[in-house]
Amino acid sequence: MAKKQIVLVIPDLHAPAIHKDAFDFVRRVQDKYKTTRTVFLGDIFDLAACSYHSKELGLPRALAEVSEAREQIQPFYDHFNRGKVDMLVGNHDHLICRKASDAEIPEQWIKPIKDIFGMPKNWKVTERFGRVVIDNVQYKHGDSGSGGSTPAIAQARASFMSTVIGHYHGSFGCNYFANDNMRVFGCDAGSLCDSNHLAQKYAKKYPRKPVRGMAVVEEGVNCFNIVMPSKNKGCK
């Protein structure tokens, strides 16, 4: 029987808008819980230059943004360059492919996302709207199912499977649901991006603000969130 995992769950980073304390926070959580596997829930890159939102003046063009983002995310690459690491492609990570599709550029002419972003060799990339299943828990980016105030448990109940998602920066926490036959949980993992960064200005109109934190899942049964010990400054 395969050994069950303690999974470190890293939600939306949105490089180059990663919060300045995010990397140290992730390492502390990893060390404390002795995690054995890592899942990035997607949107590790923001790609504001390719966004379908209105562009903010002062944001860099696409190549400059990707260069800045890769420099900012390099500590994560260096630290997680061994062992089992999964990365789910989120809606922001996928923007380059969407733009190419709009321009009718064949898929065969586009580099894989892993190559575009220079990810470590040990990272396994799960394409858009895919999922990773570990110990009968599914990990998804989160935008392919129900939303609302607690989207993860809604998606877990819809699929009859415990579910961990990112995408919804303002949703954070774990809820359980049980009936006579089963018990599942839904975990909203929050985000680790800097909501004051210019690339995140599009979200200022939303009253619900990001909750910075992450999650750990133990052996597919215990799931808990860890909030980052810093105030949501500038989110009022």
Separation of the first and last Cα atoms? 50 Å
Query: Using only CA atoms, what is the Rg?
Result: 17 Å
Largest sheet: 6 strands, mixed
Order of helices and strands: EHEHEHHEEEHEEEEE
List low-confidence stretches: none
Helix content: 10-25%
* Number of H/I helices: 5
Number of domains: 1
Oligomeric composition of the shown chains: single chain
Strand segment tally: 11
* Share of β-strand residues: 15-25%
Q: What is the 3D shape?
A: globular
Biggest sheet, strands in spatial order?
Answer: 4-3-2-1-10-11
Mean pLDDT: 88
Please identify the structural class as seen in this structure.
alpha/beta
Folded structure, characterized:
- By secondary structure, this protein is an alpha/beta fold.
- The protein contains 5 helices and 11 strands; from the N terminus they run E-H-E-H-E-H-H-E-E-E-H-E-E-E-E-E.
- The chain has one domain (about 5-135, about 190-225).
- It has helices at about 20-35, 60-80, 95-100, 115, 150-160; strands spanning about 5-10, 35-40, 85-90, 125, 130-135, 135-140, 160-165, 170-180, 185-190, 215-220, 220-225.
- A 6-stranded mixed sheet has the order 4-3-2-1-10-11, covered by helices on one side. It has a 5-stranded mixed sheet with strand order 5-6-7-9-8, with helices on one face.
- Strand 8 (about 170-180) and strand 9 form a beta hairpin.
- The chain is globular.
- The mean pLDDT is about 90.
